[in-house]
Amino acid sequence: MRGRLRHRFLALALGIALHSCPVGFLGYKGETPFRQCSQSRRVVLRASFDQQRAAKQELLDAVKDFKRELSKSGGDLSIDFGVKGGELDKKDRAPKNLAAAGVFRAVSGDLGDAADRVLELADLLARYTPNKEPLKHFGTSLGSECALHGAWSLLFTTAADATFTKNSTRGAAKVCNVVDAVAGTVTNCIDFEETSALESLRVRLTARPASPRRLDLAFRYIRARVKSFFGIPLGGRRLTLTLPVPGPFLTRVLSFFTRKPPPQPYFDLLYLDDTLRVHRTGQGNLFIQEITKPPPFV
């Protein structure tokens, strides 16, 4: 009696084991459960990749639409130095957000709608970022393997301080950002058109990851290459001026007297792949950039 019960128990246990095993030990017609799972995962991954590609293309198309609308309105926003010129916010002296301040919509309703569309699609694309740890290896000897490492040219921004136009004293310029993830530095590169006395600006910052997606920044110096000095042409030569920015001690002193905590500059990476980068700064300004070749004099 006990022997028959033991045999039945063993048979039941073996049956449960065979039916609960994800692969199965017994052959049967059709795909194994393991293969079915693999096929299902491939379908999900393919669908996710297709959604990512579609969302990315839609954002790039929206940026083109924005530029077309800007061209219709005259091609340039009037942004100049300081608070008076619309570069800085009146309250906190931070770079003005052109979208939040209504600058795009003030030019035309269509331009405002086009800018809003870019912002909406940028947030949508962030859901499909392929890099969950975009700052991995940043600031290490393996920094060249970091997804952020390289030069990035500007496609779109809401930041007034990164917007350069012909109808301003700052003049038109090409803007890019060079990330050296080995050295742990970020350099903002601004190259002005030929008509400007100022040939280029290089703003050097050091950086360190604060989280898998956030990069804290510290301004170090500004390097300016000029073609004339106090209105005097240099005869084809170039003069390079290096200007330090306030260090930590001076920042703390200013903070003490203004009774305001020193702001920590940073940006959060929303999306990053081999060719496209989307990030938002601590002031809420959005940047969309594409991979490019490094400019001279980084």
TrEMBL record:
Signal peptide stretch: 1-27
Presence of keyword Signal: yes
Record flagged with keyword Signal: yes
Principal place of residence: plastid
Record domain Plastid lipid-associated protein/fibrillin conserved: where: 115-288
GO-annotated cellular components: plastid
InterPro entries assigned: PAP, PAP/fibrillin_dom
Subcellular location(s) of the protein: Plastid
Keywords tagged on the record: Plastid, Signal
PANTHER family according to UniProt: PLASTID-LIPID-ASSOCIATED PROTEIN 4, CHLOROPLASTIC-RELATED
Protein's UniProt name: Cbp20-A protein
Gene name per UniProt: Cbp20-A
